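Suppose a colleague, Dr. K., hands you the sequence of a protein chain of 413 amino acids and asks what its three-dimensional shape might be. Before reaching for any lab equipment, you can write down a predicted structure in token form. Begin with the sequence itself:
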Amino acid sequence: MRIAHVYPHSVISVTPPRITDALGVVNYEIARRLAKDHSVIVYSRQQRGLPSVEEQEGVVWSRIPVGVDRALNSLKFLDTLRLSPRSRPYRFSSLYYTSFAHTVAEDIRARHCQIVHIHGITNFITAIRHRNPDACIVLHVHDHSLADFDADLIGSRLKDAALILACSDHVANGIRRRFPDVASRCHTLHNGVDEAFLQLATKPAESDTVLFVGRVAPEKGVSVLLEAFAQVAKRKPNAQLRMVGPFDFAPRQFVDPFDKDPVLAPVRRFCNEPATFRTHVLQAVQALAPRVRMEGVVPNNEMRRHYEQAGVFVFPSVWHEPFGIPLIEAMAAGLPVVTTRGGAASEVVVDGETGLLVDRGDVGALTAALCKLLDDPGLRSRMGLAGRDRVARLFTWNRAVAKLNHFYEDATR
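The predicted structure, expressed as tokens, is then:
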């Protein structure tokens, strides 16, 4: 089959592979596996220094200019000023990346693609369907937005999607409840890891280093982690914390658009004030130096050494995480994990077996869980091995793509 994957937000460098955001990883890992049996093109954004079109591992990587769309995206200020309906933020309008969408739609028509796999952006369904009336359109959802915003607008677009995929049962169930008419077309496709993570030579019993990987953002529970580690540091003189990831703020519409989640109340002001949050984090890190170190942005293919040097992995999100790829990377690497109840975490982590689950935003519980693992090298090893086995069985990209092929076949019958 001729398959197109469409996502305008990621910068994907493939020579050599250098990707720093989760959805870029998803696109890259799926596409290069699909290309073993299909003709695959991936449309992403143009970036200086990268060719407009290149072919690697059988995949055509097409990078589309987004200058016009960046200009149009200035209309997001209407959301900030509350001049647009809260149920229809700018990113759900037909103008969102409209130039990108129309350019891609024309190229897809010229290439006679049979399947168009759109990541997340519902207005692309309409633009691509208009120029490709016979294509099988797949919408792949990676957040909660379909369950949060204008049901009439979103529902009208979903009618043209032959298949709706969600990154977790948590996300899929939200879509099914909101749009029962499409429930039979909505399926879970869990994210995965490259099998190389399963080969990492970690020795969690020998390390007192706690590792966090993810966006340094309020909803990721970074402030809760730093408060908890301040207590851990007093009790465990050899413990260290390494934080890998960029300061990167999701719009409030992605996290808690209608301020319904009381657990997010303590960090809500940080969501509105990125500069204040950055200062707060840097001051907390400085106060704990050298026990805490921020590593900044690390490409996915360079994460090996960080996992291999760690004894415990922590992912303290205070929102309902749609999936959390770092969790399965760490488990694949053989690390025990500490994360929070909510979202998709319970689909990934078996509490007491592959890691420990604590309540979101609970500093005391997070402190206790970290100390429990740091106190017990044998427990770290046992949980790490159990996590690695669980990922090998359930969360590899090879398994995900095999499942995706079946979904494609059913949708095109």
